[in-house]
Amino acid sequence: MGWEVVVSSKGQVTLPKDMREALDLRPGDQVVYSIIDGEVVLTPKNVDFNDLAGLLGKPPKGRATLEEIDETVSKAAGHNVVDTDDDQADAAA
């Protein structure tokens, strides 16, 4: 599925409503733009970490701060796109 948007004179784009709904994006949510092989990949950062609490058990180095968690998520955003095989990449195009 693809969407065509126009870049404003200020370099801004508006995400189409159906795209926001497909990604479950709400006002105030953050997204990460990554450039992978010359293509822009948009990754939502709208995971509620409270929903994940305790999922992996106790951390080996103790509790992480919110800043450490945010930094880790920012570094990992878009990483899963790089690791996809060709069949999945073709399906996303």
Automatic annotation (TrEMBL):
Gene Ontology MF: a single term: DNA binding
SUPFAM superfamilies: AbrB/MazE/MraZ-like (SSF89447)
Pfam families per UniProt: MazE_antitoxin (PF04014)
Record's keyword annotation contains DNA-binding: yes
Keywords from the UniProt entry: DNA-binding
Signal sequence bounds: none
PROSITE patterns for this protein: SPOVT_ABRB
Top-level taxon: Bacteria
Domain SpoVT-AbrB: 2-47
UniProt protein name: AbrB/MazE/SpoVT family DNA-binding domain-containing protein
Taxonomic placement: Bacteria, Pseudomonadati, Pseudomonadota, Alphaproteobacteria, Hyphomicrobiales
